[in-house]
Amino acid sequence: MRPTAPTPLTSRRGLLFGTAAVGAGAFLAGCTSNEPKDEKTAAEDRPAADEPGKHVTIGFAGPQADHGWLNAINDNAKRRARTYSDVTLEITEGSNDTAAQIGQIETLINKKVDVLVVLPADGKALTQVGLKAMRAGIPVVNLDRVFNTPQAYRCWIGGDNYGMGLNAGHYIGEKLKDTPDARVVELAGLDNLELTKQRTKGFDDALKNYPNIRKVARQAADFTVESGQAKMAQLLQAQRKFDALWNHDDDQGVGALRAVEQAGRDGFLMVGGAGALSAFQAIERDDGVLKATVLYPPTMSASAIDLARALGRGKGVGGMAEYEIPASVTLYSAVVDKDNVERYMPTGFR
């Protein structure tokens, strides 16, 4: 579902953007010339973000869009590519079968696209095809789930799973810091994914700062509405009283909220993860237990297109002095609550 970032942290579905997705486009938008005339005219020599230049064909390969977040990844990439008259996007159907995705990427390599953007279904399993593209002279932008070696990509961009848990924990900690003997529960994602372990670790590390708070239960779901409902029902049955819930994923959170409603429970606050539109809307209404969600922005794929375009044109990134794009870009896991939800509403995914 979402990924493994470069060291030191891993990411889902690890420069930091101050406010996650909203800032990403602005940061990457202006591409700079590699040959500024001199110090006085260098800034003037940089073309505007939307100024057409050398045509770039970008191949985009991701897993099957069987989850709201993954569907948003595809949509954001397509929308961003359409804003550039000098970009052609070759996009594959996507597959969760590693052999099939490898075949799709090899087709893009054989088409001699200028740049590849790849969100691998399995970073380890697809490392060799990333290496194949790089050796063929096609730079790779590795999106979210990271390949096993930096030699398989020119740039990595993705989210921060540890940061999600850390920020969720601090948000809950600040809300409960004056509550004696506060109890929290955790509805995690798939436990066999490194990203789930990182989200839990970040959460646990944050709670160490609040000695009055104790995590009393943890249940793993699998990022679906159905699993969220079933596993949340089990948590509610086992824990008759708690003060906060950290739910790793807004899609499974839809099911978790159904279970809460069916059980007639309240008296606790819930923090979600990822940034679904339904979560934003519930936070804005402020009529239930869901009070915040921690971003894992799918707009990272739009920024990946920006990076790929810059690579294809031989440009750097606007706002930075270097003539080359960064080797890695880690998005910030901002907390969205009723105070700032209006700002992030346009980035919510269905």
UniProtKB/TrEMBL annotation:
Primary localization class, coarse: other
Alphabetic keyword roster: Signal
Cellular localisation: Cell envelope
Gene Ontology, cellular component aspect: cell envelope
GO molecular function terms attached to this record: carbohydrate binding
InterPro entries the UniProt entry points to: Peripla_BP_I, SBP_2_dom, TAT_signal
Gene3D superfamilies noted in UniProt: 3.40.50.2300
Family matches, as SUPFAM superfamilies: Periplasmic binding protein-like I
Biased composition (Basic and acidic residues): 35-52
Domain Periplasmic binding protein residue range list: 58-315
Region (Disordered) location: 33-52
Family: Belongs to the bacterial solute-binding protein 2 family.
Protein name in the entry: Sugar ABC transporter substrate-binding protein
